[in-house]
Amino acid sequence: MKSRIIHILKKAHGFVSGQEIGHELGLSRAAVWKAVTELRRCGYTIKALPRKGYSLEESPDKLYSWEIQPELKTKCFGRSIVHEEAVGSTMDLAALYADRGAEHGSLFCAETQTRGRGRLGRQWSSPCGEGIYASLLLRPGIPLIGSPKMVFVAGVALCDAVSSLTGLDVHIKWPNDLLLGTKKLAGILTELRAESGRIERLIIGIGMNVNTPKKELPPQATSLFAESGKKYSRVRILSDFLFCCERQYERVLKEGFDPLLLDWKKRCRLWGERVVVEMDKVSLQGVVTDLASDGGLIMKMDDGREKKIVTGDILRLRKSHVN
């Protein structure tokens, strides 16, 4: 009901009477007033005048389904949305609904997380109302062997959506971070369940610093606001990401992963860089030369050998060239 009233108020571009709203929705004027009161509690500024009715003055930048869905250009992704003010983790929320039979393309988002997480069990800071904390449920049914490469679908999609909307020079760091310069803007996490050698469900989690002030960020992180001085609509960013993600996902199902990996490589700037990778309490040094067909990172070691890295953290970068 709240979504339908917001739609009417936005369409009106001015005042609309409670009687008109009630007639269109089959409600009494008292019920309309009650719904308007609830919308105000949700953060909407709605002006009310006798004999004129209601006028929407300002909408909150919150990830409500009725704000996101009118912006969507997708066929499936985000057509079902669960929004919470606060959760432990949107990944856990998505898993809970997946167990209950939630459909492919369902989106789960929150204004804040109390136990947001990244790779390797790390915590993801989730200041209320300042970032995007969302998880997308997919039921691809593809062979399990393709699971490590699914993170690249979201990486390319998020990079494209943010670059297009903001004009900022966003790029990807293997395997799942978005950077502005050398600082982390966003992280992507995937968790899956398989049956009979195929992916039964895949949950893609996005944590992104959007309007977080610089003083609230750790030294290694940044936000769109910290870099540009501009506030951005989280609704717009999330809806654009869903469109780009659905497009990349459908291309993978149709053409396989090779075209996607080529696009990912264009958005990554590790090539020819000397890096230190920490994996299983062992540090490796070498120069990044390529991305393997399975999504692993190819490094040329100091002794001339090539080594494929399938998991690990790139701790620092130094300019170098492959001999």
Task: Walk me through the structure.
This protein is α+β, with helices and mostly antiparallel strands and 323 residues long. The chain has helices at 2-12, 18-25, 29-41, 65-68, 90-99, 150-166, 224-228, 234-255, 258-266, and strands at residues 45-49, 53-58, 81-87, 107-113, 131-138, 170-173, 177-180, 183-195, 198-209, 273-279, 282-291, 297-301, 306-309, 313-319. The strands form 3 sheets. The protein has a 7-stranded mixed sheet, with helices on both faces.
What can be said about this structure in brief?
This protein is an alpha+beta fold and 323 residues long.
How are the SSEs ordered, and which strands pair?
Blueprint lengths: L1 H11 L5 H8 L3 H13 L3 E5 L3 E6 L6 H4 L12 E7 L2 H10 L7 E7 L17 E8 L11 H17 L3 E4 L3 E4 L2 E13 L2 E12 L14 H5 L5 H22 L2 H9 L6 E7 L2 E10 L5 E5 L4 E4 L3 E7 L4
Parallel strand pairs: 3-4
Antiparallel strand pairs: 1-2, 4-5, 5-9, 6-7, 7-8, 8-9, 10-11, 10-14, 11-12, 12-13
Helix pairs in contact: 2-3, 6-8, 6-9
